[in-house]
């Protein structure tokens, strides 16, 4: 096994929320005791519904938010609270909203020159040339360097965001819902671009998305998050075809499909609040397989089969009891 | 509905035209122009006072005191007369303008720089810096600064312009600081600042390179209004004898002199008073005008529904059909050119049928939905075609009739349910109101109807939900409430515009299956607008694929999905990664949407089509019959090859 590029160990992030009329703020555990690895050149997909903590996790990994506890090891070195320089140079982020993630009053050329200037990547005289090569690497015309972000389309802006992330020649890019705001025809272009860049440069991705189809397409391995915790993790095709956690089954069967085959396991009540979960499995109130033990004991994320992790007391029974949420017949068209 | 307009705002040509639009709005605003003209004249006069002024402002001529202005019998030597020391009033007013404007302007520069700096620091660094600066500001605001100014100026023996600038300027900082701080607080949370952090940009770089360029624009408008206020303050101090010491000419000083000789020469105090008033008025007109020009949210004029001027296309009668849309064109006349959002769409909807309308942003799908229920965002209008609902052409019937149909016969649910609900009223209250408005339920039964409506959409405990406010519920719950509210009227046609796009996948599945179940049970026709072709394939009976405001393909869902005949439909099916499909590589559609402002020749998809032929670029493809009820607007299916004709 190769040395992981990124190791996340027992990472937690809490937010304190003050509400009107209450003296004591309440604590929201957005990310709880999350651990995973990403190998060089690998894509780990992180999937979950809104509020599950996946974006917070992405930002905490990059130290854009300070973790409450746990540690991040990047390329063998623990990332300290005050020493983020290695991380800033070798890990980058691409955000969802191509309209708010670019500074509105900077020209594209300047946006791309910023990281080069901050890290002295190339001598000043070569910056113009480097900006040009970054633009062509993401399939944009060099002339766009003179444009402001508002003069570009959503797809073009997202390409600029990717070019900015590439400027420091990172080994890891966190893509936080990077294609969710794009139209489907443009989304495919950007996904293919990200795949091509990975092949050319050996990039690793932490690919965060609520869209299981996109995650399956992009990822080698997938982690499913539910209320701040990873409930299932495993290789993308196996996880999609034979999930080991009831939540993954529900999630997969809820995805609208063009070929309507496979079982339908409807999760019929809505996600509860973080604070409502006291002990036991957070998914138990919605789970079709819940047993008395699920309300009292929280299952740990355990390796049930080689490379297949699930946080469920009855993971081994899930495929048999709930069945396959998607048809396996549909291979590549 | 916002879909098409959103695309307009964001596309490149319109961004440029928005700037041009501001220019045009300036020219169309007479009050702003008057203000600008006034400021320019007064400013020029003040600047060139030494050149223009006929006399030295302090040159006394005791032989000619209190001469009247020219219109009150004076002579041309002293157009505005002379004061009690025989000094020329016109020259004194000109030099007064020079002094007053200089002091007010400098004080403004001092206050605004101080305020900008503190606002930036307080907002960006927060914490202790913020608390200290803002508490200082509170103290400042609580203290009557004019008293402080009087006290300071009263004890200082020689008052120079510098002292006045400091005393007047410093108290203004808090006005700027507060506004700048709140803008910084909003701006620093944006993703581009987080991206800069991820790039390794330090706090000062983030503040000055990223945040500052987006926030400084709030300063000039405040500054302009501040100058007006400072001119009055400076004049007040001068009037009280605390301004520049004599013999310097100031408007306040001239006013004070004039007041003493009012009985003899009534014009003396009036002239400086007029000067102050005109200056401040001009500044305020300019400031307000600029604020409204650059505030793009400011929409002038009300909403008026415009009817098409062209005759309605003929619609053959068919008993099965509830809705027939024929040759629908929708336009948005905008400053940068007319946006043709929908360009000739036809479809039918039978009673109880679910029609899925699929397209990307800019396809015209939401505009079509809005046109059916006649709720187009201004300035949108149906420019041609007809929307025949149960025999009535909704595009042409009167507003009153339309209002009577809307909500009762034709209803609509939107993407963001929380925006359609009143945040300060409980769910139950709003639901009961809606039910009483659209049905004949009386007070006694309405609560019962409301409870059943909530149960119907899958809400297990209607009593609890009824007592809650929209913000206490999740997006999915709010959308259920909206559906309950809408269906309570038993409409015959329901339009759902991206009803689940903002919701989680699991919630989407619950809500859509419930919605389709209810519309089937009650024989309600459903127009389901979505960007997700898979959603249509799961829930709709027929589907309409739109691209750039035109129909690509139309037909029964099973047929279209099984054998898509338009290259765009095929691309839509292949370019989306599917969880059930382990594709190695997606077929991306190259390029982007055509400009919705431009007139077109040929097929709208030609530029991106993998199967494009010569004819596609010149000739609009007619809709060819593919099978029963299945149409595709593509030259590939022409019975005979079409010759390209150039018109």
Structure description:
In chain A, helix 3 packs parallel to helix 5. In chain A, the strands form 2 sheets. An 8-stranded mixed sheet of chain A has the order 6-7-8-3-9-10-12-11, with helices on both faces. Chain A is α/β, with parallel strands linked by helices and 333 residues long. Chain A is built from 11 helices and 12 strands. The two termini of chain A are 33 Å apart. In chain B, helix 5 packs parallel to helix 9 and helix 18 packs parallel to helix 21. Chain B is built from 26 helices and 12 strands. By secondary structure, chain B is α/β, with parallel strands linked by helices. The chains are: A alpha/beta (333), B alpha/beta (647). At the A-B interface, helix 2, strand 6, helix 3, helix 5 and helix 6 of A face helix 2, helix 10, helix 11, helix 22 and helix 23 of B.
Alpha-carbon distance between the termini of chain B? Answer: 35 Å
Beta-strand fraction estimate of chain A: 15-25%
| Widest beta sheet: strand line-up of chain A | 6-7-8-3-9-10-12-11
Quickly give the structural class of chain B.
alpha/beta
What is the beta-strand fraction of chain B?
A: 5-15%
Shape of chain B: elongated
Number of strands of chain A: 12
**Number of distinct helices of chain B:** 26
Output mean pLDDT of chain B: 86
Quaternary structure: heterodimer
Helix content of chain B: 40-55%
Any low-confidence stretches of chain B, pLDDT <50, length ≥5?
Answer: 1-19
What is the radius of gyration of chain A computed over CA atoms, rounded to a whole number of angstroms?
Answer: 21 Å
Q: How many alpha or pi helices of chain A?
A: 11
Structural class of chain A: alpha/beta
Total strands of chain B: 12
Straight-line N-to-C gap of chain A: 33 Å
Q: What's the pLDDT, averaged over the residues of chain A?
A: 87
**Greatest interface:** A-B, 83 and 67 residues
The coarse silhouette of chain A is: globular
């Amino acid at each position: 096994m190769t040395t992981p590029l990124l190791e996340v160990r027992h990472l937690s992030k809490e937010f304190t929320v003050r509400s009107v009329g209450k003296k004591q703020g309440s604590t929201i555990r957005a990310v709880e005791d999350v651990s995973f690895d990403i190998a060089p050149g690998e894509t780990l997909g992180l999937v979950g519904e809104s509020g599950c903590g996946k974006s917070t996790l992405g930002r905490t990994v990059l130290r854009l938010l300070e973790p409450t506890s746990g540690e991040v090891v990047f390329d063998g070195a623990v990332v300290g609270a005050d020493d983020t320089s290695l991380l800033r140079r070798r890990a980058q982020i691409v955000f969802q909203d191509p309209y708010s993630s670019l500074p509105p009053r900077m020209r594209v050329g300047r946006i791309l020159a910023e990281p080069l200037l901050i890290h002295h990547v190339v001598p000043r005289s070569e910056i113009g040339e480097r900006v040009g090569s970054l633009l062509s690497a993401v399939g944009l015309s060099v002339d766009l360097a003179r444009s402001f972000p508002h003069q570009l389309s959503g797809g073009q802006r997202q390409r600029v965001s990717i070019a900015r992330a590439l400027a420091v020649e990172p080994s890891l890019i966190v893509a936080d819902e990077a294609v969710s705001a794009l139209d489907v025809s443009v989304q495919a272009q950007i996904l293919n671009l990200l795949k091509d860049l990975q092949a050319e440069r050996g990039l690793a991705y932490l690919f965060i998305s609520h869209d299981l189809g996109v995650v399956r397409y992009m990822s080698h391995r997938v982690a499913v998050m539910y209320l701040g915790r990873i409930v299932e993790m495993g290789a993308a095709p196996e996880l999609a075809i034979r999930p080991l956690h009831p939540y993954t089954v529900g999630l997969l069967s809820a995805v609208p499909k063009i070929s309507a085959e496979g079982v339908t396991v409807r999760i019929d009540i809505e996600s509860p609040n973080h604070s409502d979960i006291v002990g036991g499995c957070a998914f138990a109130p919605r789970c079709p397989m819940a047993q008395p033990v699920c309300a009292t004991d929280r299952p740990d994320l355990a390796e049930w089969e080689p490379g297949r992790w699930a946080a469920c007391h009855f993971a081994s029974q899930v495929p048999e009891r709930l069945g396959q949420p998607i048809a396996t017949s549909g291979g590549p068209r | 509905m916002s879909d098409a307009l959103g695309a307009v705002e964001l596309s490149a040509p319109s961004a440029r035209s928005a700037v041009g639009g501001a220019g045009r709005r300036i020219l169309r605003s007479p009050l702003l122009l008057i203000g600008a003209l006034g400021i320019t004249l007064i400013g020029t006069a003040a600047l060139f006072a030494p050149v223009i002024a006929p006399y030295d402002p302090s040159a006394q001529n005791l032989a000619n005191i209190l001469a009247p202005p020219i219109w009150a019998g004076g002579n041309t030597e002293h157009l505005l007369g002379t004061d009690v020391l025989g000094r020329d009033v016109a020259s004194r007013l000109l030099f007064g303008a020079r002094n007053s404007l200089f002091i007010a302007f400098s004080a403004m520069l001092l206050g605004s720089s101080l305020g900008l700096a503190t606002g930036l620091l307080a907002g960006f660094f927060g914490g202790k810096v913020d608390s200290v600066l803002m508490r200082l500001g509170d103290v400042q605001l609580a203290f009557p600064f004019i008293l402080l100014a009087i006290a300071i100026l009263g004890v200082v023996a020689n008052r120079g312009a510098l002292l006045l600038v400091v005393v007047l300027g410093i108290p203004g900082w808090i006005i700027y600081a507060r506004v700048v701080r709140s803008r910084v607080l909003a701006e620093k949370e944006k993703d581009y600042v987080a991206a800069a952090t991820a790039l390794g940009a330090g706090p000062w770089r983030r503040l000055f390179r990223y945040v500052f360029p987006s926030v400084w624009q709030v300063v000039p408008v405040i500054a302009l209004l501040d100058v007006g206020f400072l001119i009055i303050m400076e004049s007040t101090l001068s009037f009280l004898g605390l301004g520049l010491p004599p013999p310097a000419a100031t408007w306040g000083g001239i006013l004070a002199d004039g007041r003493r000789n009012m009985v003899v020469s009534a014009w003396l105090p009036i002239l400086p008073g007029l000067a102050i008033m005109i200056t401040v008025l001009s500044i305020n007109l300019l400031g307000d005008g600029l604020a409204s020009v650059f505030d793009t949210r400011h929409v002038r004029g009300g909403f008026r529904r415009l009817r098409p001027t062209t005759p309605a296309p003929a619609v053959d009668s068919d008993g099965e059909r509830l809705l027939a849309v024929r040759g629908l064109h929708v336009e948005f006349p905008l400053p940068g050119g007319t946006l043709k959002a929908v360009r000739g769409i036809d479809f039918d909807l039978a009673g109880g049928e679910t029609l899925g309308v699929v397209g990307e942003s800019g396809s015209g799908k939401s505009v079509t939905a809005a046109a059916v229920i006649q709720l187009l965002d201004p300035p949108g209008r149906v420019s041609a075609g007809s929307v025949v609902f149960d025999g009535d052409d909704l595009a042409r019937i009167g507003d009153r009739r339309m209002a009577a149909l809307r909500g009762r016969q034709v209803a609509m649910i939107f993407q963001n349910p929380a925006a359609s609900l009143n945040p300060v009223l409980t769910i139950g209250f709003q639901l009961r109101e809606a039910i009483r408005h659209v049905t004949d339920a009386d007070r006694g039964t309405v609560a019962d109807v409301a409870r059943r409506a909530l149960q119907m959409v899958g809400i297990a405990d209607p009593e609890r939900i009824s007592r809650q406010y929209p913000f206490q519920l999740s997006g999915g719950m709010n959308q259920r409430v909206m559906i309950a509210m809408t269906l309570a009227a038993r409409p015959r046609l329901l339009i759902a515009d991206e009803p689940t796009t903002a919701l989680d996948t699991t919630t989407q599945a619950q809500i859509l299956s419930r919605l389709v179940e209810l519309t089937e049970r009650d024989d309600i026709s459903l127009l389901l607008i979505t960007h997700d072709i898979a959603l249509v394939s799961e829930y709709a009976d027929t589907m309409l694929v739109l691209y750039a405001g035109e129909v690509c393909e139309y037909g029964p869902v099973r047929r279209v999905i099984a054998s898509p005949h338009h290259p765009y439909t095929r691309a839509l099916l292949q370019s989306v990664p599917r969880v059930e499909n382990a594709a190695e590589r997606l077929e991306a559609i190259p390029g982007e949407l055509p400009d919705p402002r431009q007139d077109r020749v040929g097929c709208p998809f030609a530029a991106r089509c993998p199967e494009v032929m010569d004819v596609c670029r010149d000739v609009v493809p007619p809709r060819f019959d593919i099978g029963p009820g299945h149409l595709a607007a593509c030259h590939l299916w022409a019975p005979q090859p079409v010759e390209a004709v150039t018109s």
